[in-house]
Amino acid sequence: MLKIGAVMFFTTYSLQPAELGPMLEERGFESLWVPEHTHIPSSRKTQYPAGGALIRPYYDIMDPFLALNTAATATTNLKIGTGIALITQRDPIVTAKMISTIDQLSQGRFIFGVGNGWNQDEVENHGTDFASRHKLARERIEAMKAIWTQEEPEYHGEFVNFDKMQQWPKPRQKPHPPIIVGGAFPYAARRAIRYGDGWIPRADRLEKEGVGVLISKFRQMATESGRDPASLPITIFRVPEEFDRLKYCEEIGIDRVVFSLPAETKDKVMPIVDRWAELKHRLGG
């Protein structure tokens, strides 16, 4: 059955996670996702991928882990996920501890959506070279996997380097929360196959070549790389509110779709949630 989740930029002026989480859970939605931007530089070397001016919630968004933990505290079964966390802007030892903690506190409901960032100025303000960010992200994820799964991990790479150490708690999920790699085809798809447990493409980017075409290419790529496509579930973000498209996603074996909610108050958000609840009901969920 197709899983359905929601993604939202939580801000001081939007509906809050402790209120939205239970609303989603009561209507049978599977998950809640929160993007990440630590800050938005005033300079702009990179254009906003959606075109035009960067929308205000990018500047105002709350920390994703704190927002998600708040939602988890107010719910019982709702999964919580970063959609996506910017690994190129995060220390891997600190982040490993944070993820283990939130996974324990949520009773194993955390999903680790990751990405490498499009905003060059933002990435570089964290001391990361934009050109080498993809290798840095891979090393940080490999290092976190070692921390989560080993009693006395160590890691020695070009960018990440630490001797034997110890860190607890370990995540509740074993071997660790699912790592789902966000980004476009083919580059992010290759990263998902190399070190991920799934792939997050955006619906608008899949439409350019056809959703079914790119999904088939991804699964073929996985097989050629020695990965079982079934071990790499696909989560499509920012899916339009259209029954036929959702039905098609279900038919081609998409694992999850995630719809967008605006950074608005309850009166603006809830009609969207209720329309999606009706779509979910029509799909048989």
Automatic annotation (TrEMBL):
<dbReference type="InterPro" id="IPR019921">
    <property type="entry name" value="Lucif-like_OxRdtase_Rv2161c"/>
</dbReference>
<protein>
    <submittedName>
        <fullName>LLM class F420-dependent oxidoreductase</fullName>
        <ecNumber>1.-.-.-</ecNumber>
    </submittedName>
</protein>
<dbReference type="InterPro" id="IPR050564">
    <property type="entry name" value="F420-G6PD/mer"/>
</dbReference>
<dbReference type="Pfam" id="PF00296">
    <property type="entry name" value="Bac_luciferase"/>
</dbReference>
<keyword id="KW-0560">Oxidoreductase</keyword>
<dbReference type="InterPro" id="IPR011251">
    <property type="entry name" value="Luciferase-like_dom"/>
</dbReference>
<dbReference type="GO" id="GO:0016491">
    <property type="term" value="F:oxidoreductase activity"/>
</dbReference>
<dbReference type="InterPro" id="IPR036661">
    <property type="entry name" value="Luciferase-like_sf"/>
</dbReference>
<feature type="domain" description="Luciferase-like">
    <location>
        <begin position="21"/>
        <end position="238"/>
    </location>
</feature>
